[in-house]
Amino acid sequence: MLTLIVFLPLLGAALAGLFGRFLGDSASQAITCGLLIVSALLSWIVFFDVAVMGNLADPVDLATWMRVGSFDFEWMLRADQLTAVMLIVVTTVSAVVHVYSVGYMHHDPSKPRFFSYLSLFTFFMLMLVTSDNLIQLFFGWEGVGLCSYLLIGFWYDRPSANAAAIKAFIVNRVGDFGFALGIFATYVLFDSIRFDEIFSAVPDRADATLKFLSWEAPAITTICLLLFIGAMGKSAQILLHTWLPDAMEGPTPVSALIHAATMVTAGVFMVARLSPIFEYSEVALAVVTVVGAATAFITATIGLTQNDIKRVVAYSTCSQLGYMFFAAGVSAYSAGIFHLMTHGFFKALLFLGAGSVIHAMSDEQDMRNMGGLRKKIPVTYWFMWIGSLALMGIGIPGLPIGFAGFFSKDIILEAAYGAHSWVGMFAFWAGILAAFMTALYSARLMFLTFHGAPRCDEETFAHAHESPKVMLLPLVVLVLGSIFAGGLGYSYFVGGGMEAFWGESIVVLEGHNTIEAAHHVPFWVKALPLVVAALGIFVAWVMYIQWPALAAILARALRPLYLLSYNKWYFDEIYDALFLRPAFYLGRGLWKSGDGAVIDGVGPDGLADLTQRISRRASALQSGYVYHYAFAMLIGVVLFITAYLYVQVG
Amino acid sequence: MSEIPWLSILTFLPTVVAVGLWFVNDEDPEVVASNVRGGALLASLATLAIAFGLWTGYGIFNHFDPATHEFQFVEHREWFGEGGFAYHMGIDGISLFFVVLSAFLTPLCILASWTAIKTRVKEYMIAFLVLETMMIGMFCALDVVLFYVFFEGVLVPMFLIIGVWGGPRRVYAAFKFFLYTLLGSVLMLLAIIAMYYQAGTTDIPTLMAFEFARDMQIWMWLAFFASFAVKVPMWPVHTWLPDAHVEAPTAGSVILAGVLLKMGGYGFLRFSVPMMPEASAYFTPFVYGLSVVAVIYTSLVALAQTDMKKLIAYSSVAHMAFVTVGIFAMNEQAVAGAIFQMLSHGVVSSALFLIVGVVYDRMHSRDIAAYGGLVHRMPKYAAVFMLFMLASVGLPGTSGFVGELLVMVGAFRANTWVAALIATGMVLGAAYMLYLYRRVIFGPLVKEELKSILDLDRREMLVFAPLIVAVLWMGIFPMTFLGPIEASVTNLIGNYEAALAAAGVGADPSVLAAR
Predict the structure, then answer these.
(1) The pLDDT of residue B124 is above 70
(2) Is cis: bond before B236, omega within 30 of 0?
(3) Quick one: three-class SS letters along B254-313?
(4) Which of A67, A96, A255, B64 is surrounded by the fewest CB atoms within 10 Å?
């Protein structure tokens, strides 16, 4: 069954990709969507079987991949509880996005290609989550990166889309550089890259050291930090986050599937999957926490001032990924995965809702040109509110009532508080501030888009229309998920049923049990996220509905801060000056002066030149005048006699 | 031992046919051309069939035994000289796939030149068939003199191919190539003579077992290095490659990148490491240094190129630097990875040169700026290009990944600095290839002259199809190749470490200090 889940999307991708022209648009769509829905249904069966019932199946061994000495691993599919959770998130969101895209891409001429990429992406993502070793994980990891590249650059006529696609691939490659070194270090330390063999050997090697570069470094910490660099790239954490907002150049369903619900969460999945290793490195966990918390905070500040509707949601994704990471950093992996799941639903809903808005507005993405759309597209409006409230984490503290994000975000914040460490505290307060800003920018997005007076031209506004059923119906699945996934999943993921649910797929050491501590934090810790969220909505209401001039006044009053946020903390500019331009400058310099002037100049060209010069001199000697020759002979004779005398005397 | 001299048949079949083709004559040059093309293709296909047969054993052959490191299909005949220069042929796990690669690429080259070459078709095809003989012979030779004859012999048809059918600056390119190669060849010949005086034989298996004195090893190593480093090519003796590629006709580039560059790597594995183990260990940091510089330097240079062929040529230098790191990191993963990387590069860079050739045949320009938006007119071409670009970038599932991964794992075991520095190639390689692809394929199609460009035709698809299969098969089921390589590599490393231990030089220290 696992084999079918993984390979049905590949089959769909191959059929649509290779034979799309013969099959035609609707057949290609039907095939890919149909196969994915089957795959999604099978995933739910596996989920109930593995995670809820606790029946672990044997891994499926497909073929030997490489065996060189002890560097030995297979193509293998394995489903434990963690994988099962990822399976339902990936296939469900993917199926929804496939169906939605039938409507969204209605006018696009190259539909088979689009659906082929989507299905191919799903295949790689499934290979990633079902892997039983690091290299196959890397295979899926790079594969999803490839599909992300292809889909961001899907509209290849746009220079900005091409640039964004390349940027995404290369920034991810920077992360993969660390990931790859982490894999090598793991192999050197454990003599294996299979998960079960590594995990069982970790306790024995906890104090090993590894000669890495010039340091005699603690091995486990080195490995974890290197692997985490990979996770930072894929999950757009601070420093390596710059590609994600640009990735919004891709079609919106792509943003929902890849850049919100699935691929970008691969880093979180990786850390959770490797929890048996990360648990043995306090340093690595602290780094994960700090990076996650910093990301949650910084990207939220950027989200406050962006005007592109998709970019706001994109920065919000970065920020939410930060939450997931600091959850993992304080050893609350299950809370991180819980948030990953709920976030998958409500963020996909927000993106697809935004797509619906863009569709209605004839491809307008700037919120400054929207407004007043509430009446025009009421269903989208309400769906977006549900997604936003879930994102803000609205619910009633102490009672099991609330939107999905309420349960998962609060448990993360409580766990950070419950960690009772300075990094935990840092994460907690960064998370609270980010929660305030989350509510603020989400409400801002809603108010600017749907409320107030329309700011677009009349023709566009008149043309604005609700999306077709094929786009709205799939959203119902996500709406249900955004409302109920938190309440239903709570006790399994992070509550009393937690240990039975996760089994051995997540390892938490004694003394790191922050989830347990999270259930015993003071009431104000539980209530604070809701208070700041409500405050955020209120502030947004004042600034964008009640007194719309206030936003501009604030922007002027706090101009440096505003510019910092609006220009995304200048990361792109800094990287451009630091890496991009020097690389091209160096490349040209090395080519022209290194290869051209130095190597060729001294080497072949110089040698040829020298030969020519010498021969020219030599031929100049043969002037044909007898007295020249006589003179030369005379000099020769003098020299000869002198030398002879010297030898005689000496 | 086989009764039938398969390796000789394999080696000389193309030349025999080439001699036959010489006598094809007709009033109409078109008739001659088409007959010669057909004959050459058939001959190269027959050679390929034999090579495949030797490897897999399907059909009537007794096949290659992957379990042993011994030379197989050995032929041994006295040749000349009392000291025993012999005609000695044989293959092991290291040379097997280079033979297969040579036989695999030649028919593709002939097919790729089908319409591109219009003048002196007969001579061109003959040159290619002779070239094939030389290449296969070189990988099979088990006598140093024989090896030298083939090694230098390869250059003759290659010179002709560049010099006669090449581009406008072909003379400059040929002269540059000649200067570099000459230097290496002379020194290598000296070393071979010295070897003969020391050991009294030119037999490669005997020389492998012979223990040269340490000083001797160092001089010999340098002499061989001069020759092999030019072939690989290693930085800083790489500057002939971009020029040679740019001026060579497409098929010439394919052989140049696909097989000729492998002669250097093969030479290191056949001569430097087994015959001069102490010197190899001594010079390992030197090789690391040059390779690391090559990866970073040439990748940056590739980023700045404006000529497609030059860009791919520079990327070849970077990829081959992985090979030299792998060979001298001297552990199972690294050496197997180096061999695999050479095979992979042979397929991938050949394909990339063919890809450039496709548009060159149509537009007669290699300038990147002359293209843009080709995906609109050439979707099949865009897809094929994408696949090989990804293989070049080393995406998992393609052949490029397996080679790079194994080399880097092995390098990490030997020296983490080297591994970390060559791993930057992952990032830089992606940068220049994606940038190239974007400029050629993506974007709107605005250039007037491109608006009527045609997509791949059936013959071109026929050329690419085997390469596509190869690159994916090697990526997904690399054991097909790693299996037969293994025994020979293990033996090579075992001998190397034994020699070092005997000499009192410590084998490379493990990165791991304490477990």
Answers:
(1) yes
(2) yes
(3) HHHHHHHHHHHHHHHHHHHHHHCHHHHHHHHHHHHHHHHHHHHHHHHHHHCCCEHHHHHH
(4) A67
A11 CB-contact burial (10 Å; exposed 0-12 / middle 13-18 / buried 19+) = middle
What ipTM score was computed for the predicted complex, to two decimals? 0.89
Q: Tell me how close the Cα of B126 comes to any Cα of chain A, in angstroms.
A: 30
**Which residue of A lies nearest to B181 if distances are taken between CA atoms?**
A604
**pLDDT tens, A27-46?**
888 999 999 999 999 999 99
- Quote the tokens at residue B49: 């069939």
> Is the pLDDT assigned to residue B60 strictly greater than 60?
no
Window 71-130 of A, Cβ < 8 Å to B: 71, 75
3-state secondary structure B73-109: EEEEEEEECCCCEEEEEEECHHHHHHHHHHHHHHHHH
Q: How far apart are CA B383 and CA B357, in angstroms?
A: 16
Query: Nearest-CA neighbor of A237 among A171, A149, A282?
Result: A171
Does residue B83 register a pLDDT over 70? no
pLDDT at B406 over 90: yes
The Cα–Cα gap between B434 and B302 comes to 12
Residue B514 forms beta bridges with which residues? A209
On the CB side of B319, CA atoms within 13 Å amount to: 35
Which residues of B are less than 8 Å from A595 in CB distance? 239, 242, 301
- Rounded to the nearest angstrom, the minimum Cα separation between B239 and chain A is 7
Distance CA B317, CA A259 (A): 36
A213 part of contact set with chain B, CB < 8 Å: yes
Angle (CA) A216-A220-A222 rounded to 5° is: 55
Provide the phi-psi class of A580: left if phi over 0, else alpha when psi is between -120 and 50, else beta: alpha
Residues of B in contact with A210 (CB under 8 A): 511-513
- Per-residue DSSP letter, A48: I
Taking a contact as any Cβ pair under 8 Å apart, which residues of chain B between 169 and 228 contact chain A?
A: 175-176, 179-180
pLDDT attached to residue B514:
35
B256 at the A interface (CB within 8 A)?
no
Q: How far is CA A275 from the centre of its chain?
A: 19
How many Cα atoms are found within 13 Å in the side-chain-facing hemisphere of B459?
A: 12
The single residue listed with the structure tokens 């995933």 is A43
The pLDDT, as a whole number, for residue B102 is 92
Residue B396 bridge partners (DSSP): B398
Give tens-digit pLDDT for B239-277: 888 888 888 888 889 998 889 899 999 999 999 999 999
**How far does chain B reach from its first CA to its final CA, in angstroms?**
47
pLDDT digits (tens, 9 = 90+) for B417-445: 899 999 998 899 998 999 999 988 888 88
Name the residue in chain B with its Cα closest to that of A66.
B479
> Which residues of chain B does A205 touch, with a Cβ-Cβ cutoff of 8 Å?
515
Considering CB atoms only, which of B176, B304, B336 is closest to A584?
B304
For B333, the closest chain A residue by CA position comes to A68
Cα–Cα dist A78/A211, whole Å: 33
Residues B468 and B383: their CA atoms lie apart, in Å, by 11
Given pLDDT bands bounded at 50, 70 and 90, which one contains residue B510?
Answer: very low
Q: Tell me if B12 sits within 8 A of B94, measured CB to CB.
A: no
B416·A65 Cβ contact <8 A: no
Backbone angles phi, psi at A308, to 5 degrees: -80, 125
For B403, the closest chain A residue by CA position comes to A66
Domain boundaries, chain B: 294-476
Query: What's the predicted TM-score (pTM) here?
Result: 0.90
Burial environment of residue B502 by CB neighbours within 10 A (0 to 12, 13 to 18, 19 or more): exposed
Nearest to B258 by CA among B321, B180, B350, B125: B350
Residue pair B292/B423 in contact (Cβ under 8 Å)? The answer is no
